[in-house]
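Field reference: sequence -> structure
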Amino acid sequence: MKDTYKTITKASPEALFKDRNSKFFGYAFPVKTEEEANFHLEELKNKHHKARHWCFAWQLGKSDFHYRVNDDGEPSNSAGMPIYGQIQSFEVTNILIVVVRYFGGVKLGVGGLINAYKTAAQLALEKGNIVTYTIDEVFEIHFDYPEMNIVMRLIKEHNLNVIEQKLALDCKIYISVRKSEADAIFEKFDTTYKVGIKNITGL
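Structure field:
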């Protein structure tokens, strides 16, 4: 089971590719929503208001991906899909790549455009700080004080990451567990006497 994903931690420095007087500026941004992607796109349109095209591709999600591509007036599939192809090649997600084109007066043809948009996207990704994260599930463990020792022993034994503790009349501890280990950890607590556990991932 794949339980990791790759993304960038911050916006990449501007990348530039030139072909026959046309300039292609590549940018990569970490994003978690389509609204964030639209915000960065509008910022670039303001920054490069004299440009001819603002082509982009984004992908969101950690395991169930959804994506969007846009040729922004370039010939069909000559810009957005080559950009998206680099997102797939670098195996990154939660990312937006925009390539801004200034037309240089010479038509590049579809093949030339595909190469230019692909290369500008590649350069932007190469400048980005790509990191790998685990895909985690979050569990709530609930129990009464007499069970505290056994719960803490299980947490220590399995080196689990405690996110939060709520110790009042009864006790609740929240842990995050790698997706590939989640079923086994759930069973450990679920079969422990007087200890309850539930999956609250995404709540």
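Note: The first helix runs from residue 34 to 47.
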